Amino acid sequence: MLFGLCFSQVEKDLYGKWMGVDQGEKGFVTFYPDGFISFNFGSDNIDGKNFIIPEGDFKGKVGQIKYKVDFSKKTI
To answer: Fewest CB within a 10 Å sphere: which of 13, 38, 45, 76?
Structure first.
């Protein structure tokens, strides 16, 4: 029980900027406490709170990206 309490993960552990590599290109994902997320890959910057859709059927409309984490599941 003590081991589980000491090493259990909580949502606040996600907050902040995370770096990753996709097809050789470095990118960043930022998790915010209010449930929003932003992405930065190369010259693409997507603000999850106020993203203006640049093309397609919804061009010019505002999009939002939020996350939800289920810590009752084990991660890989």
So the answer is: 76
